[in-house]
Structure formats: structure tokens, C-alpha cells
Amino acid sequence: MRILIVEDDSRLLTQLDALMQQNGYSVDLADDGQKALFLFKEYPYDLAIIDIGLPVMDGLALIKEVRRNKIVSPILILTARDRWQEKVEGLEAGADDYLTKPFHNEELLARVKALIRRAAGQPNPTIELGPICLDTLTEEVRIAGAPVDLTAYEYKVLEYMLMNPSKIISKTELTEHIYDQDFDLDSNVIEVFIGRLRKKLDPDGSIKPIETLRGRGYRINRQL
């Protein structure tokens, strides 16, 4: 999953970047609202974390502009503990949730995961499709109850596909959601990940969990 973090405090921005990457997210960074708006228009994000007090364009103005541009990525706003008005203003501007500073990393991660699941129509932290069971909290995958050992990027690909079970997903879209913005979009690495997932999820070829639609992309087999 790909996240945009917008924060002008360089120390906090660095901490949030490290926290999110350590927990398997691809992260883009912006330290002012104008830069963030550019990134919003250029790249798809599964979620954005936005501080209210930003230079150039403040967080509230940024959120309003993002929504005006029909960008529907979930937004979690960060605000100072003593500015409760900002919470109300942020939600009315189009944010989906808020967190006050200082905050515990565990709460931030829990809210991020919940917002991403909710946006994908998956309120339950465990996603089940046929014999496939993926736990978004523990990042464990099981097939018919048996654990499957996936690499970090194999897990990211499977999680994104299960979050979008009816969607045909192109290689470019998968790349954009699991890698940072400077990754080579022409790479064939997605084909490699898909091939590995098929072998690990379906070693005997009996369930065929991932469909290939020639010239269009991939889709989770809804007939599982």
C-alpha cells in the first residue's frame, strides 16, 4: 500500500517515514501543502497523513483542494491536542479521521490500517476468499489453514489484489501501489511476483487464484 505523508516538522516526517516503511508501506513525502497537492495529482495513494499546520498551503486548504479534484484517497489529519476546532474543520473539509499530537505509533498504525480497509470495503482485518485467508494485522497468509511464507513484496501484491477483488489491475497500477515514486514502472518484476504467488498459493494448480487478462492485467479469481 502506498502512503503520502505531509508534515513540515522534519524530525517527525523522518520518524513517520521510517515507521511506515518498517510496517511494509511504500511512502512518499512532502513538507508543504503545495508539494503534496502536486503528488496527489501525479500518483495514486491508498492513504494520506496530513498535518494541519503546513507552510505555503495549510492542511485544511490542501484537503479541500484534494477533494475538489475528486481524489478519494482516505485522509488522516494530524492536529495539536489543544486545537479541537481543527478536528472539526478537518473532517468537514473532507478528512476521514484525525489523530492528536503527541500520539502512540500503535494507534497511528491501527487507524491507517482501518482507513485503508474501510476504503476498500473490507472492514474486517481478516480477508477470506475461498481457501485464501490474509490477516492484515499480522500479515500472515494461509491456504486452507496452512501457512504460506511470502516475501514482503509478494505479500503487498496479494494484499492489494485481495483489497480489490473485482478489479482488473494492471502491472503499472500494482507497481504504483507497492513501490515508491522513483521505481522503474517498466520493470517486469510484477510478473515475477505474480508467478511466485501462483506457485506458493497453488502449487498443484488446482485453484488458480490469479487470472491474467491479456493486455489488461491481473485479477483475483472470484470463483475460488
What does this entry look like structurally?
There is one protein chain. With 224 residues, this protein is an alpha/beta fold. It has two domains: 2-119, Response regulator (Rossmann fold), CATH 3.40.50.2300; 126-220, Orthogonal Bundle (Arc Repressor Mutant, subunit A). The protein is built from eight helices and eleven strands. It has helices at residues 10-22, 33-42, 59-68, 84-93, 105-119, 152-163, 171-178, 189-201, and strands at residues 2-6, 26-30, 47-51, 75-80, 97-101, 126-129, 132-135, 140-143, 146-148, 210-213, 217-220. The strands form three sheets. The protein has a five-stranded parallel sheet, with helices on both faces. The chain has a four-stranded antiparallel sheet with strand order 6-7-8-9, with helices on one face. It has a two-stranded antiparallel sheet with strand order 10-11. Strand 3 (47-51), helix 3 and strand 4 form a beta-alpha-beta unit. Helix 6 crosses helix 8 (189-201). The two termini are 24 Å apart.
Task: Lay out the secondary structure.
Layout: E1 2-6, H1 10-22, E2 26-30, H2 33-42, E3 47-51, H3 59-68, E4 75-80, H4 84-93, E5 97-101, H5 105-119, E6 126-129, E7 132-135, E8 140-143, E9 146-148, H6 152-163, H7 171-178, H8 189-201, E10 210-213, E11 217-220
Parallel strand pairs: 1-2, 1-3, 3-4, 4-5
Antiparallel strand pairs: 6-7, 7-8, 8-9, 10-11
Helix pairs in contact: 2-3, 3-4, 6-8
